[in-house]
Amino acid sequence: MKGTAGGAAPKISQRSAVDPFIVMDVMRAAGDYARRAAAENLPDVVHLEVGQPSTPAPRLARAAAAAALEAGPLGYTDALGLLELRRRIARHYADFYGSDLSWERIAVTTGSSGGFLLAFLAAFDPGDRVALASPGYPCYRHILSVLGIEPVLVETQAETKFQPTPALLDRLDAKIDGLIVASPSNPVGAMVSPAELEALAEWCETHGVRLISDEIYHGISYGMQAATAAAFSDHAIVVNSFSKYFSMTGWRLGWLGLPPDLVRPVERLAQNLFISPPAVSQVAGIGAFDATEELDANVKRYADNRALLLEELPKAGFTRLTVPDGAFYIYADVADFTPGGPNGDSLDFSKRMLAETGCAATPGLDFDPARGAHFMRFSFAGSTADMAEAARRLKAWHNKAKR
């Protein structure tokens, strides 16, 4: 290699040694399989791995973006986002939750990922400790670790729907500075009731803990109404996104609902880290709020997919399933298939499933480092036809293995 003879190699940062986001590795492997399938006339891949709607952005959002592209240059916006979008998001809180969250407290972000980064940087210092449920979204702990903040994993159980509770928090062995709550959660799809969310907010207020509420799956629920932490605490940070309900993953657009004392800190950080969110995506986001009929039809499809997989997956040997309240995931205990050790775990199982059936799903190790070797997450964000095809293949695979 050029430039290395006779001298030491330049360093690589320790913070870059963060664990991978395994679902993205599975997505890449699914792409590799799809290319091989096309060349070798194999069945195409069925995507059950990524939490990504298979539908495009709503028609009104696309029309708004197209008009903006034709109207002229799209330059930087205010670091906190277009005023019209911030006002529209504030109106959404009044319409959807009956909650008063002023537009001055809204910060538009580059996806919820940018939102989490800004929230963690504004609220915590290196060495602080932030609690989060395990199993849970892996990027919480990865982003915290990169920033020098200690993730404190709270091992949750089915009895609490894999959600944290004040009783679990009381049993932590040292003080925490923050708590992340996700409802609906990823990978389980579990929701906390308004009373439970209020109790967590009160616990945080009592103990001087910053509550961060991940609400990116709001709008996608099955018989249970989502509550926002903004209704229970002026100190909570609310994170939301256009990716899930609004079906706009690639547009990279989200928002924060901030306490008044964090608005200016987040603005300063956003100015320096991102300058502003994508202008065309913000224009599209304004249009997306008027597309509820189209978006609710997507949620109806998710409900149909959920019902299909809950009925068909047990016939493929996946008999221990967590029934989701919201989002579009089913978390499955696959200990019967993954005995562990040299005989394999959920990562190995996901590789075999993809290679032998063309069905891509995410290993539980992504969400729970301690117990995830015996779990898999199935996303039902795709088409109902894809869900039916996945069920057919997995049943055939299971029946073949039994022979």
Describe the overall structure.
The chain has 403 residues and is an alpha/beta fold. It has 2 domains: 15-54 and 293-402, Type I PLP-dependent aspartate aminotransferase-like (Major domain) (Aspartate Aminotransferase, domain 2); 59-291, Type I PLP-dependent aspartate aminotransferase-like (Major domain) (Aspartate Aminotransferase, domain 2), CATH 3.40.640.10. Helix content is 41%, strand content 13%. Strands 2-8-7-6-5-3-4 form a 7-stranded mixed sheet, with helices on both faces. A 4-stranded antiparallel sheet has the order 9-10-13-12. A hairpin with a 6-residue loop joins strand 9 (320-322) and strand 10. Helix 2 (59-71) packs antiparallel against helix 9 (279-288) and helix 10 packs parallel to helix 12. The longest helix is centred in the C-terminal third of the chain and has 21 residues, at 292-312. The mean pLDDT is 94.
Could you give the order of the helices and strands?
HEHHEHEHEHEHEEEHHHEEHEEEH
User: Approximately how much helix is present in the residues?
Assistant: 40-55%
**Arithmetic mean of pLDDT:** 94
Q: How many distinct domains?
A: 2
Q: From the helix content, strand content and strand pairing, which structural class follows?
A: alpha/beta
CATH topology (level 3) name of the largest domain: Aspartate Aminotransferase, domain 2
Give me the number of helical elements. 12
Note the overall shape: globular
Task: Enumerate the strands of the largest sheet in spatial order, edge to edge or round the barrel.
Answer: 2-8-7-6-5-3-4
CATH class of the largest domain: Alpha Beta
The major β-sheet equals: 7 strands, mixed
Strand content: 5-15%
Distance between the termini: 53 Å
Architecture (CATH level 2) name of the largest domain: 3-Layer(aba) Sandwich
Which value, in Å, is the CA radius of gyration?
22 Å
